[in-house]
Amino acid sequence: MTLSRRRVRAVFRKELREYRHNGNIVYAMAILPLVFLIQPLISVFTLPAAASGSLRHEHSLLYMLAIPVLVPAALAAYSVVGERLQGTLEPLLATPIRSEELLLGKALAAFVPSVVVAYGVFALFIAVVELFAHAGVASALIRGPDLLAQLVFTPLLATWSIWVGIAVSARSADPRTAGQLSILVSLPTVAVTSLIAFNVIPPTLGVALAFGAGLLVLIRLGGRFASALFDRERLITSTK
Amino acid sequence: MSVENLSKRFGPRLAFSDVSFEVGHGEVFGFLGPNGAGKTTTVRTLGTLIAPTSGSAIVAGYALVPENGVEIRGRISIMPEAPGLYLRLSVAENLQCFAELYEVADPKDRIERALRAVKLTERADDACGRLSKGLRQRVALARALLSDPQVLFLDEPTSGLDPAAARDVHDLIGGLRQRGVTIFLTTHRLEEAERLCDRVAILNTTMRTIGRPDELRDELFAKTLTVRTAAALADPDRVFADVSALDSWRTDGAATYVLTVSDVAQAAPAVTRALVAAGADVLSIAESRHSLEDVYLDLVDHEDTEAGIQ
Q1: Which residue, B281, B280, B235, B241, is CA-closest to B259?
Q2: What are chain B's domains?
Q3: Considering only alpha carbons, which residue of chain B is nearest residue A11?
Q4: What is the mean pLDDT of residues B202-229?
Q5: Could you tell me if A3 lies within 8 Å of chain B, comparing CB atoms?
C-alpha cells in the first residue's frame, strides 16, 4: 500500500487552517504552555544566588517536557470527534483518502504546532533565565544534557501523545470528554518526566535510553492502535 | 452500476435487503422511499463508506469490495444530505482541500469551473459559516463536481431549499445529465424525481418497484377518462355500449362519469361522438393522470396496510 503525499498534505493544510480559525484550539495551545512557563519563571526569579547549589541536584528544565505531552493531546483529541461533530467526516471519507493518510495528516497537523510551541516556550524560558536570573542560578538550571534531553524527547513525547489523542478521539462522541480523557491517558508520561526532573528517578544515560526506547515502542503501538480504532463504518453510522 | 441482491444489516436491524438494479451510463436514477427505508445506507454502501452484509455490486466499473475502495471513491462523488462543510474555512479553501484529496490535475482551474457551475464565483472567499443553507448546498454540489465523477450520488440535494434554490439544483442536474454523468438521486420530492429521473426505484427496506415513471403509472393504475355533462344521461349504458376501447364505467356524482379505457387516444373521440349522438351537452372530457406520487403512495400505503394487518 502506497500512501499519497498529496492527500496527507491536503489534510495537514486543512487542519492548520482550521486551528487558525478555532479559538478553542488557539486557547488550548496557548494556556497550557503559559502555565508551564510562568510557574518555573517565578520560582527562578525568587531564588537567591545561594540556591544554585540545590538546583544542581534537580533538572527543572525537564519539567517542561509536559508541554509536548499535553498540547498535542488536546489538539489530537479534537481531530476525529471534531469532524464528526461538524458533519464533515462523511464527505471526507467519501473521497479516495485512505484511513492511514487521514490519520497521518491529522497527526502531522497536531505535531508541528505542538513541537513549535514546546521548543518556543523552552527557548523563551532559557533566554529569560540567561538574561535576567542570577548567573549562578542560570548556570545551575541550564545544562547540556538537560538541553539535549529536551530536544530529543519533545518530538517523541508529542508523537506518542498525538496517537493517544487520536485513538481517544476516534472513540468519543464529545470533544470535551475526548480532550479530558486524552490528557488523562497522557498523564503517566508527564509523571515520569516530572519524577526525573525532581531527581526521584536519577537522570542517567541508561534511564534516558530506556525512556527513549520505551517511547519508540509506544509510538509504534500507538499508531497501530489509533488506526485500528478508526473504524470508518462505526464513525459514519455511529453504531457500536 | 450494477447491484445484485445487496443487503445491509446492523446487528439485528435490517437496513435494506436483497436490493438489485442496474443504472446505465448517463442515466438519472431516482431512489425513493420513506424515512428509514435504507436509501442513505444504500448510497453509503455503494460509496464504499460501509460494507454490505451480503450481495455484490459493480460501481463505476469496479467490484464493490474493500480492496477497490480507493479506486471506486476516486471515480464517484457523494453529496450527503447535510453539506458537511468546514464552516470556519472559506468556500475556496473547502474546495481546495477536496481537490487535493481527489488529486485532480490543475486544481485551481477545476475549482473555478465548479464555482462557475454553481454560480458561486463571487462568494469564493466567504467563510462557509456565513452562507445561507441554500448556498452551502451549492458549495457541497461544487465539491461533488470537483473530480468530474463518473457516478454522482446526490442524497436529498434539495432538502430544505426554497423553490428557487431547488430549481437551480434541478437545472444543474439537467446540465450534468447532458454531459453524460450518471446520477443516483435519492429524494423525498416525488415531483423532483418525476421531472429529473429517467427511471426510479422505490425502496422500503426491500425493493418495491423499479421502472420509468410513466411505466409505473401504467402498471399500477388503469387509464381513465372523466366525462362531465350538463345534465345526467338518461341511459348511460346505451350511450357507452358501443364505445371502442372502453372497459367499464361508473358515475362519480350526478353528471360525471369515470370511464376505464384501454387506449385513451382511441376512446376519447369515440366517447365524444357517442355523447353528441345521444344529444348530451358535454362540459368536459379529460384524461385522469396519475402522478408518481400516486404510485409511491399506493406502494408505500399498501405496504403499511399489510404491515398493520400482520
Answers
A1: B241
A2: 2-212 (3.40.50.300), 222-288 (3.30.70.100)
A3: B97
A4: 84
A5: no
